Amino acid sequence: MKELLSIQQKLNAPKNQYNSFGKYAYRSCEDILMAVKPLLAETDCSLTCNDDIVLVGDRFYVKATYTLTNKEGKTASASAFAREQDKVTGQIEAQITGAASSYARKYALNALFAIDDNKDPDATNTHDKTKPEETPKKASTRAVKPKAEETPGNPIDEALKAIDEAKTRADLEAVYHKYLPIIGKDAQFLNALNTKANALKQDNPK
Predict the structure, then answer these.
(1) Mean pLDDT, to the nearest integer, of 45-66?
(2) Integer angstrom CA distances of residue 105 from 14, 54, 118
(3) Which of 76, 107, 174, 196 has its CA at a distance of 20 to 30 angstroms from the CA of residue 159?
């Protein structure tokens, strides 16, 4: 599909957002859509999105699918999944689902338009931790993944529990530094951190 190739080559979606807690720049789903709209007009294409709620095991995921359609009716699409978080302090259920939808949509757009966000977790790692290997086959050229005994059980669930139990900003920063090299920029992890940080700020305005 030549229109998709043209959009992929011309699309420039800078990271206009900034996470003050993690101290890194990132792009949102809205940033990508704003950048791609002029190219849709240029190529005479339309872009549509569809969200589905999918049950995988005992967990619900939001499946976002973006479809690019040219004037001849030819299409190209990509999907991405994001899991709803069990609990986010200060958010109602609709907001939790909305956050998962936004995250899934962003990565569906990344897949469709060949946008690479993989540098984000590395940019926040300043503690000389080794980067987890992506596949066992590349173990000889990549750093060794942290040993399982360092974080027994499910790292996400443990990190969320630690965030919920944090009493001070110092506690929260300790959780961030401990789990970031293992979890990376997981949506649930970062959302929970920001929500807790705001709650602590309200409790201790000074």
Answers:
(1) 90
(2) 17, 15, 16
(3) 107
- Copy the structure tokens of residue 97: 């689902």
Write out pLDDT tens, residues 114-165.
997 655 444 445 544 444 444 455 544 455 444 444 434 577 788 888 888 8
The Cα–Cα gap between 191 and 85 comes to: 9
Q: State how many domains the chain has.
A: 2
| Phi then psi dihedrals of residue 77, to 5 deg | -140, 160
pTM of the complete model = 0.54
Query: In terms of domains, do 113 and 162 share one?
Result: no
The residues with which 66 forms a beta bridge, in sequence order, are 49, 78
The last residue of one of the domains, among 98, 117, 136, is 117
Residues 123 and 102 occupy one common structural domain: no
What is the torsional sign of CA 31, 90, 194, 189? Answer: negative
4 with 95, same domain?
Answer: yes
Question: What is the model's pLDDT at position 123?
Answer: 45
Note the pLDDT tens digit of each residue in 170-204.
Answer: 887 888 778 777 776 677 777 787 788 777 776 66
Q: What single-letter amino acid sits at 115?
A: I
Name the nearest CA neighbour of 62 among 94, 110, 33, 35: 94
Enter the DSSP assignment of 130. P
Residue 63 belongs to domain spanning: 1-117
